[in-house]
Automatic annotation (TrEMBL):
<keyword id="KW-0285">Flavoprotein</keyword>
<dbReference type="GO" id="GO:0016651">
    <property type="term" value="F:oxidoreductase activity, acting on NAD(P)H"/>
</dbReference>
<dbReference type="GO" id="GO:0005737">
    <property type="term" value="C:cytoplasm"/>
</dbReference>
<dbReference type="InterPro" id="IPR036188">
    <property type="entry name" value="FAD/NAD-bd_sf"/>
</dbReference>
<dbReference type="InterPro" id="IPR050446">
    <property type="entry name" value="FAD-oxidoreductase/Apoptosis"/>
</dbReference>
<dbReference type="InterPro" id="IPR023753">
    <property type="entry name" value="FAD/NAD-binding_dom"/>
</dbReference>
<protein>
    <recommendedName>
        <fullName>FAD/NAD(P)-binding domain-containing protein</fullName>
    </recommendedName>
</protein>
<dbReference type="Pfam" id="PF07992">
    <property type="entry name" value="Pyr_redox_2"/>
</dbReference>
<feature type="domain" description="FAD/NAD(P)-binding">
    <location>
        <begin position="4"/>
        <end position="140"/>
    </location>
</feature>
<keyword id="KW-0560">Oxidoreductase</keyword>
<keyword id="KW-0274">FAD</keyword>
């Protein structure tokens, strides 16, 4: 019986985990689940060219054809709210649960806001997903102060 691996988190680590499974010869089902709506993308340019406005869309980690070509089911825009380890399934904010035989957690990290002062009063802000960088680039949020 073939097994199903679910990779939770469609950032760099998650995409590479899915790719590595195929490269190593795993022939079961591979599902990559991420909450962001975009094709998994590179984060480093967000604080460089994208923020400066010289790049107008996030750079994908892998082309769209990679996922179909490697038989990796890519499920973007899916927020996981809980892991039911007994039943081996992910509980989604919207939609039916996703079952797994093996689960890889590739959830990354989020910036912690500064507690001693509000972001607005200091001009400091965090830079995380591309949607945040888009807001900076559009001037909707105060520009981050890097030094
Ligand atoms: C703006 C910026 C600039 C950077 N520049 C550099 C650089 O110049 N050089 C360098 O070496 N590194 C840089 N980094 C760091 C590097 O990009 C990270 O180390 C890398 O992105 C980590 O990858 P990851 O897959 O572990 O985590 P992440 O990229 O954080 O991916 C985790 C994914 O999991 C998803 N997720 C989390 N929880 C859930 C959930 N409950 N349900 C569904 N999905 C979920 C998140 O939405 C996210 O897409 C930068 C990071 C940022 C944010």
């Amino acid at each position: 019986m073939t097994s199903r691996v679910v990779v939770l988190g469609a950032g760099h680590a998650g995409v590479e985990a899915a790719a590595s499974l195929r490269k190593a010869g795993f022939d079961g089902a591979v599902t990559l689940v991420g909450e962001e709506d975009a094709l998994p993308y590179q984060r480093p340019p967000l604080s460089k060219d994208y923020l400066a406005g010289t790049q107008d869309s996030p750079l994908p980690l892998r082309g769209e054809g990679f996922y179909a070509g490697q038989d990796v089911e890519l499920r973007t825009g899916e927020r996981v709210t809980a892991i039911d380890r007994t039943a081996r399934r992910l509980i989604l904010r919207d939609g039916p649960p996703i079952g797994y035989d093996h689960l890889i957690l590739a959830l990354g990290a989020r910036p912690r806001p500064c507690r001693s002062s509000t972001q607005a009063s200091t001009g400091c802000a965090t830079c995380g997903p591309y949607t945040t960088a888009t807001n900076y680039a559009a001037g909707w949020l105060p520009a981050p102060r890097w030094s």
